[in-house]
Amino acid sequence: MTLVELAEAAGLPPRTVRFYIARGLLEGPAVAGRGADYGSEHLARLAEIRKLQSRGLTLAEVGRVLAGDRRAPAPSPWYNYMLDEDVHVWVRADAAPWRLKQLRQAIDAMSARLRKENTY
Fold first, then answer.
1. pLDDT value at 60 more than 90
2. Which of 48, 30, 47, 52 shows the shortest CA–CA distance to 39?
3. Fold of 3-66
4. How buried is 110 (Cβ within 10 angstroms: 0-12 exposed, 13-18 middle, 19+ buried)?
């Protein structure tokens, strides 16, 4: 199947498939270029990647699992934001700076809303 057919069968954009190939998570086609041909093993690998991601693994962790490294991943630092007595938000500290900024804005908005609702 072509890249587009593979992507459609996997429910992914072709760009994502190319990204997985570039990251080494997915083998490239046997023949590159216009005659690129992908097989059922590529589709199975994409299903495995999606399954691992649905369990909350990052792409780095997915890569380790697919490579056969079953050891527990190294601990990663987390930020803990206490929004209220019973509400905590944990965010991985190694997220991209732009993502941390987005999350911080969302957390601030949620915190303000919780404070407002608790004043009534």
1. no
2. 30
3. Multidrug-efflux Transporter Regulator; Chain: A; Domain 2 (1.10.1660)
4. middle
3-class secondary structure, 42: helix
Which pLDDT score, from 0 to 100, does residue 9 have? 95
b/e burial code for range 35-53 (CB count within 10 A of at least 16 → b): eeebeeebbebbeebeebe
- Which neighbouring-strand residues pair with 89? 81
Q: What are phi and psi of 77, to 5 degrees?
A: -75, 145
Q: Which two tokens stand for residue 89?
A: 């938000």
Residues paired with 91 in a beta bridge: 79
Q: Where are the domains of the chain?
A: 3-66, 78-118
Determine the distance from the C-alpha atom of residue 68 to the mean position of all C-alpha atoms in its chain, rounded to a whole number. Answer: 19
CB–CB of 50/65 below 8 Å? no
Give per-residue pLDDT as tens, 2-30: 999 999 999 999 999 999 999 899 999 87
118: tokens are: 């608790």
